[in-house]
Amino acid sequence: MKPDLLSADKVIITAAITGGIHNKQDNPALPITPEQQARDALDCYNAGASVVHIQARDQEGHCSGDVDLYSHILALIGEKCPIIKQIGNGIGIRLDSNNHVVMPSLEERYNLLTINPQAEIHTIKAGTFEFRTPYGATTFYNPNTFNEAYIQGCKMLNIGLEIEIYDLSHIVNVIEMVERGALIPPLHISFVLGIRGGAPASAHVLLNMLDALPEGSTWQVIAVGRHHLRTTMLAIMLGGNARTGLEDTLFYKSGDLATSNAQLVERMVRLAREIGREPATVDEARSMLGLTR
Known about the structure:
The chain is of the alpha/beta class. It is built from nine helices and 14 strands.
């Protein structure tokens, strides 16, 4: 797929408001409870985001796969605003009694398909890789058999799909699933850059990945930490969409913590407009992503 430096298309801005690693000790503005997440979703919607990416936390702030908790969060957000709700099917990391990283089971992740009310979009990770976090490393299992079962579950429930790519080999996995008929284009792709154990955040890597992407796909960059702002700006300039939020960066600029998710969304809206690209409304984003729910 070719980049478009002169694109005037609308930009879908996704707000990843909580994530599966950070906690309030890292940034006090991180929303944890369902009420806090619903408030932040509304603020991000008002700031110009059309999608909110959600991970649930329990009362202690730990990542949770509790379907009832997800249902409560989604219901509260739906009461406040019409923003498109997206579930990350990785759930997030946990620490055991020895402070070792533990990933949720495939069964626990698959159970996210039973959330009610359901989100409009779920994510899948397109391949297995070593996930290195500040708390240690673990293998993040995303076998094709699991992904294809999850995709089929989304189809049956009429749930949209976003495919996260952490490495160039993951695009090969995606193309093979298209060839088998498990995935049906057009695809919605996220290039995840700067995760330790995944692809580095660089213009060269992004262009190589983009070149391998099937034509007609919609795409965005998820870039973390110090790479977040510049890599996401590059995606906007190349015709892609953008994700921001406290999951991806705790800081507004070096040494200064972000004060809210909405502050980060406002910046992306401003930067997109500076190059002539308006943020997509919720209805426009639904159309661009082919959502029918």
